[in-house]
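Worked example

This section walks through a single chain of length 329. The input is the sequence exactly as stored; nothing has been trimmed or padded.
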Amino acid sequence: MKNSSKANPKELFKGNKQVDIQDACVEILKTMTTYEKPQGLRNNVRILSGDPTVGEDWQALEGFGYFKDHAWGICRNHFSVMINLGLIEATDKFAQTIKPSVQGMAFLEKPTETMVWASKIRYNRGRAQLEVTLRRIRDEFATETGQPPYKIIPGYTMDRLLWELPDTEAKLRKIPGMDLFRADNLGVEILQAIADHIHEKEEIKAKMASGEPFERVSSPIQEERAAVVSRYFKEGWNVGEIAREMELKESTIYNYLEKLHQEGVIDMRPWIEENVDSKVLYKGAEFFRQAETPELKAAFQVLGIDYNTLKLCRLYVAEHRREEMQIAV
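Given that input, the structure is written out below as tokens.
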């Protein structure tokens, strides 16, 4: 199956099948060779995903936005697979930046069919849950030491932890970017998180093999992510910044913020009043005040306001209604 990673984006990586990512590999490698100096894994993903907040020089690159029709994770996982295949490597032992390997440059000169299982490219719940845990460990240590998170565990190092799953201190120290200092300070927590992840995977496999019913519990990762969103929001980060840091869609961040507000963890009203245009907020609020069923689709069809803003308008109205009911009682 030939693939530019643009055709039928919603169907491309579904199902138990193999896909040819040759074209995507070429585009990624070709884009990386145009940089004046190597970039980190995260910056590479931002460029190929078409992140509008990168500089104009990046946006002028031919490969900018190549994965714009896909979720951020699809682009990220292409890089992971290419690292696994030896096409991309860390620039040095500190792993702050990445570059095409000698093998990658040879591939770029003479591309060949590159078949991989679609499951390696699409979202993986277990790996995502492990990453949230590792990010928490990283962020807490970054806060303690006053350093930016990417200096504690670079993107390439995080990627290797997620895919190689080192289960001993010796294996952990072989991961690029995981030097003696990091291994000594974070090693115990990282290895425990990986051990828990492996144990859960083995439990699920055993139950599936035996035919025993089991329930996939998604709450831990949701709770972890919600806590991170809450922390960033209280620190004054905007939605775009939170989404980029957590490698999630902005719509997902809005969903978390709405949930956190409803649970009383944060108060979104002052933020809504400050960040939503007053005329837009009035139009949206009026619609939801008068609507019998406050559906976003109906509001979008009538007002043409984007869904994320409509969610904020609906939340704003719901909160005021709640207060009015309390006053009436």
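What to look for: Confidence is low (pLDDT under 50) at residues 1-7, 321-329.
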